[in-house]
Amino acid sequence: MMCGTILAAELLLAVGALHPKRALYNKVYRKTTFGLGDLLKWLR
Fold it and tell me: Which residues lie below 8 Å from residue 15, measured CB to CB, with a gap of 6+?
């Protein structure tokens, strides 16, 4: 299973290398947005 995880990480890095603006946008978006599930995790 470790091989699949490494492959997935490599694919994500490849997408960032191909589309650096999109990769930067996605990184900022994931860090700055939150949903109901995130609020519930925080309240536990």
Answer: 22, 23
